[in-house]
Amino acid sequence: MEEFHDYIRGTIDYRIAVAGQVDAGKSALIHALTGGDPHISTETDATRDVAGYRYGGHSELLDFPGVGTTEFSPAQYKKLLKKHKVKHVLYVFSSKIREADEKVIRFLAKNKTKITFVYSKLDALIDVSGAYDRELLKQEKNSELHVTFKKIIKDPLKYHFVSVKNGTGIDALKEDIDAYFDSKDEEFQKRLEDSRYFDKFLNKKSSTLGARLLTPGFKDLILSREFKAIEQKTAGHFHLDEEDAGFIGMPMPRVKEFVNQAKDTGKVAGNYRKMIGPLTTLISTVLKVRKLNVITFVLSTFGEAGIRTVYPVLRGVFEYVRAMNDMAGDVLAKHLKEAGGQS
Asked: 42, 95, 162, 281 - which has most CB atoms within 10 Å?
């Protein structure tokens, strides 16, 4: 269950990038949002690399460097954003909109990246002439934002005005961030109930098992009939035990039973060409790997003569693996149903 949940979360982007102007207090804002040390930096553009900070249970805020420096020109900043494939950006200002900001924001808008505009250091927003109070200055800033980007951004254009120093606006910004991550949790729940993700997860589990089984050491297990070791590898990979078998009312599969069934059929004994076809199909289907890889493995590991000898064992082992794969699906499906995670 935990592994399936982790797999689903891995398909959803639980990150928000905190980017924007140099010396706008991005790092301090992140610490205020995550409940850490506010660390108000006295250095200009102290952040050089992208660092991640946990937000809530499994979400993350990414601390980006400031844009418009010698090291991070708009062109270089775009490359950085592309590299991290961010889908939501808190773009932080502490002064007027600059040319470098425009270039980066136009790039984000073109790529349909969600942008939340933040005006930091509200406590320092003053009119040196004394002609305007702070509310009028905020209106002026919002007007500047609207006029500059109204042609390229359809969402409402207004700032979240915040101050890390006195805490103004932090709670309101957190509410917006929480709502965004709540939407991700809703998407998680939908995917948890989507059979396509269930099947993809099981296919991934099967294919990764192939890397553990199709190895030179596997030949020794087959030839020495070390069925217990094969069972331990497979059961450990799928996290299955006798309790799980009882949970769905089935006996625990055993390799020896499937090997004996393969021996009893005896329909293709002695005919190499008739052996390799169904065996390759079986292994590639069970492990979700290419047939060519399976043929190469079987021929290079056992050779023609060896295949005739170990055919019932190989067939039995992979019939057993398929049964364990099916059991893993049944156990997971029942747990999800009982937890209300899958219809």
From this structure: 162
